């Protein structure tokens, strides 16, 4: 109708990061006519930026490692709020998924014996991250992309989805625009897999790229699905703090995994002062033992620099607040005094170049200045653990835009494995559902008209505000009021500010035409950013305790009562905000509970 470009598929995957590509391959292999739609160029998804590695208990370095230890580490890292079934499937299936990547041509770094090498990361009991230097995401994307293209899966790139369609309560398709021409595209499909990544662009200081505007989170809400764990945002302890143009850019955790330590302006290795009770038994309490651990993990406990990210980020924040920070408001990360220049250049080539080129710092000779940066959202679409099906028939979610797997805090390396394990599962389930339908639902013509009108609305008003100024104010507000340390008063204020931003966003205007118009694109993204920011602030205000990626200085303790429930967000009746409700966690079976019974 109306000369719209239309396509019909069994499965449409939105997103071409690790999760989307793996889901599309699985759907195609299961016989589904499959398309991938992505906002940026193929190969540019966020996954490409992943540095450290893929967590999988392959046991190549430590034969003692197995899925049970990985499962336990993941649950403890998430402070037991994880969906236990997802954590179990993830730990069990990650080794197979990594092996499969290798079969498809990924070239991992090797051990002396020729096995896939595995490196140490925070919260993982054994060296467990399969890696390619510090460019693991690039290799993963290269491999998956080559396979997807070789299989002949259709790819629509630089094409942004703004709306999902439902017919009789079930998914019937998606609506998108081409970034270059501004023309619209309609995908008719009974199965849609959301694999759109995270939300970091709602914060001012972030390691995330321009694409991370929470589109999948918002699309799911608008389609009637629910989000969980949204109060849990991971602030990575080590982002660059200088120069200003790169503030927030990630400094991989591998620097610490490979021996780097944190010092304050007095030269003190301060992490020993911040070992929480929960991790005391497994963390070294003196420098000698911590340093011995790199070579002898059996007889020594791990260094406190490798505590889970939330612990390290909070410690850094406290040191800076106490006036022991570096000149540019960070803290020092020192590998230069601990490892040889050859070792550093070989193990951390990207970090070496990143600091040399961007900050004129030689990390083989001087310490880096780093500070916390908004990195990852644990929260996302609430899904069934085995199939990644959301609450809406035909709508699946996987990767960073899904919730549950990581609980209140994600361990490093557990995202890339999450993408592969659940990407495959979602693709298979989406294909099976489509194959089981007698006929495909069609999109109602009036829904097409509404979607077009909504996408064009930013052109309708004149003399309104520029979307960039609203975005900037939102980012500052989220950073200041919903950041690493929160309190009830500021969270309530943030919700008021978000309401005011929403009001301003109703009257924004964009200049120019539909051809390649970033202002218009931002206006459409902003709707999603505002909705998702509201979810984060609302859940953060409701959860009156501190746990994982959520720290309240008015409720500094972890509360046993809050450890039994999730907060679930759904679109409210106005369609422009969200409602929040408590929901009990799924109960872990007894045989899995035994892993947590020792001290
Ligand atoms: P992405 O890779 O972000 O892909 C999202 C896709 O969705 C993109 O193709 C985008 O174009 C598309 N998209 C979004 N919105 C729309 C829309 N509206 N319409 C159409 N398409 C859309 N994790 C680890 O496990 N190990 C690591 O070492 C590691 N290092 C990291 C380093 C950095 C710097 C960062 C930022 C993250 C790192 N992470 C790491 C986290 C991990 O990289 C991400 O969580 C993961 O890559 C997310 O993958 P994804 O497939 O869910 O989404």
TrEMBL record:
Signal peptide: none annotated. Residues 289-309, 542-561 are annotated as: Disordered. Residues 472-586 form the Fumarate reductase/succinate dehydrogenase flavoprotein-like C-terminal domain. Residues 10-416 form the FAD-dependent oxidoreductase 2 FAD-binding domain. It comes from the Bacteria. Keywords: Flavoprotein, Oxidoreductase. Residues 291-309, 542-556 have a biased composition (Basic and acidic residues). SUPFAM superfamilies: FAD/NAD(P)-binding domain (SSF51905), Succinate dehydrogenase/fumarate reductase flavoprotein C-terminal domain (SSF46977), Succinate dehydrogenase/fumarate reductase flavoprotein, catalytic domain (SSF56425). NCBIfam families: PRK07803.1. PANTHER family: SUCCINATE DEHYDROGENASE 2 FLAVOPROTEIN SUBUNIT, SUCCINATE DEHYDROGENASE [UBIQUINONE] FLAVOPROTEIN SUBUNIT, MITOCHONDRIAL. This is Fumarate reductase/succinate dehydrogenase flavoprotein subunit. It comes from Nocardioides taihuensis. The lineage of its organism: Bacteria, Bacillati, Actinomycetota, Actinomycetes, Propionibacteriales.
């Amino acid at each position: 109708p109306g000369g719209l470009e239309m396509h019909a598929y069994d499965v449409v995957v939105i997103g071409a990061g690790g999760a989307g590509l793996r889901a599309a391959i699985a759907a195609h292999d299961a016989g589904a006519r499959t398309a991938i739609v992505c906002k940026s160029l193929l190969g540019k998804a966020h996954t490409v930026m992943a540095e450290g590695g893929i967590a999988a208990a392959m046991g190549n370095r430590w034969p003692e490692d197995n899925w049970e230890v990985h499962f336990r580490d993941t649950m403890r890292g998430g402070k037991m709020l994880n969906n236990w079934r997802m954590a179990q499937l993830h730990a069990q299936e990650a080794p197979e998924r990594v092996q499969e990547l290798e079969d498809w041509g990924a070239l991992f770094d090797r051990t002396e014996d020729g096995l896939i090498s595995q490196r140490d990361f925070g919260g993982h009991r054994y060296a467990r991250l399969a890696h390619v230097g510090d460019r693991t995401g690039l290799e993963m994307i290269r491999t998956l992309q080559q396979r997807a293209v070789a299989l002949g899966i259709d790819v629509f790139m630089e094409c942004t989805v703004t709306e999902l369609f439902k017919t009789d309560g079930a998914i019937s398709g998606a609506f998108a625009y081409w970034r270059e021409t501004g023309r619209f595209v309609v995908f008719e499909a009974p199965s849609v897999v959301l694999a759109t990544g995270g939300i970091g662009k709602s914060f001012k200081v972030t390691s995330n790229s321009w694409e991370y505007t929470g589109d999948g989170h918002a699309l799911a809400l608008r389609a009637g699905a629910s989000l969980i764990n949204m109060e849990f945002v991971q602030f990575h302890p080590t982002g660059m703090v200088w120069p200003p143009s790169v503030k927030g850019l990630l400094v991989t955790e591998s620097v610490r995994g490979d021996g780097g330590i944190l010092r304050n302006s007095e030269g003190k290795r301060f992490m020993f002062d911040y070992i929480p009770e929960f991790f005391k038994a497994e963390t070294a309490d003196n420098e000698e033992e911590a340093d011995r651990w790199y070579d002898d993990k059996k007889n020594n406990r791990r260094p406190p620099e490798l505590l889970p990210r939330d612990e390290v980020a909070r410690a850094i924040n406290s040191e800076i607040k106490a006036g022991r920070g570096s000149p540019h408001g960070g803290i020092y990360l020192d590998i230069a005094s601990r490892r040889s220049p050859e070792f550093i250049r070989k193990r951390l080539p990207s970090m070496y170049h990143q600091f040399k080129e961007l900050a004129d710092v030689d990390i083989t000779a001087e310490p880096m200045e780093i500070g916390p940066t908004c990195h990852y959202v644990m929260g996302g679409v609430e899904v069934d653990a085995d199939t990644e099906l959301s609450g809406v028939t035909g709508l699946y979610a996987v990767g960073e835009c899904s919730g549950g797997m990581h609980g209140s805090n994600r361990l490093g390396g557990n995202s890339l494995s999450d993408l592969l394990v659940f990407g495959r599962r979602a693709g298979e389930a989406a294909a099976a559902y489509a194959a089981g339908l007698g006929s495909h639902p069609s999109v109602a013509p009036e829904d097409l008209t509404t979607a077009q009108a909504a996408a064009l609305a930013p052109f309708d008003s004149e003399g309104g505000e520029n979307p960039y100024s609203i975005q900037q104010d939102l980012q500052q507000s989220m950073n200041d009021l919903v950041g690493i340390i929160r309190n009830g008063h500021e969270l309530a204020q943030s919700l008021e500010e978000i309401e005011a931003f929403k009001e301003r966003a109703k009257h924004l205007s964009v200049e120019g035409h539909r051809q390649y118009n970033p202002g218009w694109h931002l206006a459409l993204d902003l709707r999603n950013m505002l909705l998702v920011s509201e979810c984060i602030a609302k859940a953060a205000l409701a959860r009156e305790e501190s746990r994982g990626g959520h720290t309240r200085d008015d409720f500094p303790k972890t509360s046993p009562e809050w450890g039994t429930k999730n907060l679930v967000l759904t679109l409210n009746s106005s369609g422009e905000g969200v409602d929040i409700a408590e929901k009990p966690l799924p109960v872990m079976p007894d045989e899995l509970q035994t892993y947590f019974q020792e001290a």
